[in-house]
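Good morning,

Attaching, inline, the backbone tokens for the sequence recovery test we're adding to the shared suite. The designed sequence is right after.
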């Protein structure tokens, strides 16, 4: 393995499982940060990591964020995540997905899987042939379908909360919003922004994704890449692709007053949020605003109701406002305030598990 060694020991995780099936070519890692509130629920990311070390670092960070996301969303779920190492366009197969499903089943319900980057509801249907601990399935199989629908809706609600905090109005009408990544979540987010009257600028490494958005919304403007987008005169910047979008260079040139997007792990390093605060930029913690997808697939465990899930996702607006006001009152960064709210709920609710029930 290249790069600095990453170890699950000392990371605070309850359990990390390395999964390998030589016949199918499966190499996967399942990480459980905490099951204090309930079984870990988190998507399976199918991605061509440079090496096992990179995959481990990603799944450790993602699973921890899922625990905080579930807690903030008021769900009785813990934090889990999985990664499958490989190119989903080339390496995904029925045998590999079903082999992965066997490993999920071996955890006996400590972990429920769902969709993420590189996986889709149809893949969950394949995995479900080997395990019952799957959500985010197709509607044909009684599932919630594409979880990016409510992920985007939740990000939009979080963005409205930030706008209310900064400009005393929850409307994005007349504001310029830059969306980086318009594949799954970003595409749906653009729909909400256009409907609200925002001026939208987009970019994506996939030109077909940009073309699809502009065909649906001709008023949307596109720029060449993210480097160009962050230099645009923006009111809001929405990173909706992969993590690490907010590095020092990006923060130094960003004109937006608000950063609120659907991508996970947006901060490139620990000090990034401080740099945003120094420039007067309000940052919406990603795991707070992108919880709509988790809410959607979690609702499937009760027998899916889109309206019920959407109602729950609407509460992201009030949660985000609570985070921003607590951050202001306590003189801390929004992510610190969000962490404190999530950790308080984990402590208070998990304590009840100490009360023995037959």
């Amino acid at each position: 393995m290249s790069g600095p060694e990453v170890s699950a020991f000392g990371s605070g995780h309850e359990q990390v499982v390395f999964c390998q099936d030589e016949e199918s070519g499966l190499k996967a890692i399942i990480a459980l940060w905490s099951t204090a509130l309930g079984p870990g629920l988190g998507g399976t990311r199918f991605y061509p990591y440079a090496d096992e070390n990179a995959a481990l670092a990603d799944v450790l960070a993602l699973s921890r964020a899922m625990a905080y996301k579930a807690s903030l969303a008021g769900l009785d779920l813990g934090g889990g995540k999985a990664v499958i190492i490989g190119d989903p366009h080339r390496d995904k197969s029925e045998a590999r997905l079903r082999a992965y499903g066997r490993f999920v089943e071996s955890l006996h319900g400590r972990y429920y899987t769902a969709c993420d980057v590189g996986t889709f509801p149809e893949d969950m249907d394949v995995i479900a042939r080997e395990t019952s601990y799957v959500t985010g399935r197709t509607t044909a199989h009684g599932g919630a379908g594409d979880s990016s629908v409510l992920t985007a809706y939740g990000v939009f609600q979080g963005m409205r909360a930030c706008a209310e905090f900064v400009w005393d109005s929850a409307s994005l009408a007349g504001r310029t919003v830059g969306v980086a990544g318009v594949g799954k979540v970003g595409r749906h987010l653009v729909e909400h922004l256009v409907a609200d009257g925002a001026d939208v600028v987009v970019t994506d490494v996939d030109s077909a994704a940009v073309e699809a958005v502009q065909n649906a919304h001709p008023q949307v403007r596109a720029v060449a890449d993210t480097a160009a987008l962050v230099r645009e005169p923006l009111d809001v910047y929405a990173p909706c692709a992969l993590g690490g979008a907010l590095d020092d260079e990006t923060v130094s040139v960003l004109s937006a007053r608000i950063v609120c997007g659907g991508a996970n792990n947006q901060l490139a390093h620990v000090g990034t949020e401080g740099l945003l605060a120094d420039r007067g930029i309000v940052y919406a913690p990603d795991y707070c605003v992108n919880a709509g997808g988790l809410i959607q697939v979690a609702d499937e465990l009760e027998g899916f109701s889109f309206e019920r899930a959407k109602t729950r996702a609407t509460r992201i607006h009030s949660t985000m406002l609570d985070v921003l006001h607590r951050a202001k009152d306590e003189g801390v960064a929004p992510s610190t305030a969000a962490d404190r709210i999530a950790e308080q709920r984990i402590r208070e609710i998990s304590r009840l598990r100490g009360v023995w029930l037959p």
